[in-house]
Amino acid sequence: MSETRPPAPEEDMSTLRFRVVTVDGQRRGIKLEEIYWRSLGELAARQGRRLADIVAACERELEGEGNLTARLRYVATRHLRDRLEAAKTRSSLAAVGSQVRASPSPAFALTGSKHIVAYNPAFLAFVQTRVLGSQQPQAAHGLRLSFDVQFVDLVQRLKAAPGEPQPAGFTIGVQGQVTRGKLNAALAPLADQDVIIGFILG
């Protein structure tokens, strides 16, 4: 019976670290918290520059006035903020809607409160033909959709296997008509709420 290893302790990113950086042939001794060094290193790598180049740019911006470490902290924080804003843009409901509409098969995005926040034309056609039996407009109006498992349980399954879709059954009801089927569920890339994207099979 193998023993379960305890989780590795989280690294303390607030620890001050002293580094010597050579700028224009001159050595600069700089002390910053580890989180700022990490951010500056990531920024340098993304821009194809050296850490010394960023330090030199900060010195030029100060023009001999101001605090270099404060400027470096600002640059590091601005980089982290820019990355966060970019991540928010990529993980917005609008981005989820775009993913749903790009699917050639019937697809939708459902919140934990059973609110459909996005669907594509193929899904609308599925509802019209399989549930209503006609090509009525506004077929999604008043539509009720649920899974054959609890929403939270399906979310837990998806989080336990990142990147892997999970099979589930579904029920769609509208205007007194009901249909059932199977789908592959995926977790939408949202940070602030759990939304499941369903891709209807067959």
List keywords for this structure.
single chain; Ribbon-helix-helix fold; Beta-Lactamase; six-stranded antiparallel beta sheet; two-stranded antiparallel ribbon; 8 strands
Structural summary, described in words:
This protein has helices spanning about 35-45, 50-60, 70-90, 95-100, 120-130, 150-160; strands at about 15-25, 25-35, 105-110, 115-120, 145, 165-175, 175-185, 195-200. It is of the alpha+beta class and about 200 residues long. The chain folds into two domains: about 15-90, Ribbon-helix-helix fold; about 95-200, Beta-Lactamase (2-Layer Sandwich), CATH 3.30.450. It is elongated, with a radius of gyration of 26 Å.
Second rung of CATH, namely the architecture of the largest domain:
2-Layer Sandwich
Strand order of the largest sheet: 4-3-8-7-6-5
Count the helices. How many? 6
Global mean pLDDT: 87
The assigned structural class equals alpha+beta
Helix fraction by DSSP (H/I, runs of at least 4) = 40-55%
Look up the CATH topology of the largest domain. Beta-Lactamase
Tally the beta strands: 8
User: What gap, in angstroms, lies between the N and C termini?
Assistant: 44 Å
Number of domains: 2
What percentage of the residues does DSSP assign to strands (E)? Answer: 25-35%
In N-to-C order, the SSE pattern is EEHHHHEEHEHEEE
Q: Using the CA coordinates, give the radius of gyration.
A: 26 Å
Give the overall shape: elongated
Give the C-level CATH assignment of the largest domain. Answer: Alpha Beta
* Low-confidence runs: none
